[in-house]
Amino acid sequence: MPGVVNTTGKEHASQTGATIDQYGDSLNIIPVGTPTRDELELKYYYAVQASINKGLPFGSSHLPIEHFMSVVDYQGILQGFIAGLIKARRILEIGTFIGISAIFHANALKRNGVKGGADETGHKPIVSFEISEEYAAKARANIIEAGVDEYIDIIVGDANKLLAQLEGVTFDIAFLDADKISYKGYYETIMDKGLVNKDGLIIVDNTAFESVVAYIDAPEWAVALHEFNEHIRNGPTR
Ligand SMILES: C[S@@+](CC[C@H](N)C(=O)[O-])C[C@H]1O[C@@H](n2cnc3c(N)ncnc32)[C@H](O)[C@@H]1O
């Protein structure tokens, strides 16, 4: 068996090659053999639909067009899984959109035993910045429908300013998923202010952006992404 990742200590294999299953409230990802793409997609889809995000009204790999910017299922599952591995208790998100990644994260925090509601820092376990009031309103509705509104603070405004104002709270994960041109600034502010705890993670979406970053005539935002990648590659570790 090539690899087993099993958060409950139980093992479960299937003839078909891959299984994602739910024991109690924890996620198991058990790759066995080489599954076909269709098998994997179906299993991921049903795993998400049936168990991981009980309140989520849709599977994001089958999203209607208005959900085009959301994480897809496997990314949400992976990020939730990572949040479980590092036992994350607080997550900062830059770019809420309609709340899908935040819902994945909230369910991961729940599985980690994190309680909902604001604590002494005045924040709920997930702080998520969104510049569009319209998207934020849709996110709030989705988050309520998913039953995780006690876990997510959505703050409307420009994340460049909001991040600079954020005080008195630190996070185990920062997920950067907003305007690509600001990634370097977000990263630097997070590091300068010590917003992510030692041994925490900064997860950055779209850093290759379907290879657009490598185009000779790349648009300004893709050039900024490339520069961000170089900055991380060359930058001193802190
Ligand atoms: C890719 S979407 C986020 C998707 C979301 N993380 C998910 O996976 O479900 C990017 C979001 O960032 C927001 N955004 C763009 N620039 C921003 C800024 N300067 N401050 C805050 N949010 C911003 C956009 O309005 C958009 O909703």
TrEMBL record:
InterPro entries: Cation-dep_OMT (IPR050362), SAM-dependent_MTases_sf (IPR029063), SAM_O-MeTrfase (IPR002935). Pfam families: Methyltransf_3. It comes from the Eukaryota. One of its GO terms (biological process) is methylation. Keywords: Methyltransferase, S-adenosyl-L-methionine, Transferase. Coiled coil: none annotated. GO terms for molecular function: O-methyltransferase activity; S-adenosylmethionine-dependent methyltransferase activity. The lineage of its organism: Eukaryota, Fungi, Fungi incertae sedis, Zoopagomycota, Kickxellomycotina. CDD domains: AdoMet_MTases (cd02440). This is S-adenosyl-L-methionine-dependent methyltransferase. The keyword Protein biosynthesis does not apply. Belongs to the class I-like SAM-binding methyltransferase superfamily. Cation-dependent O-methyltransferase family. It comes from Linderina pennispora.
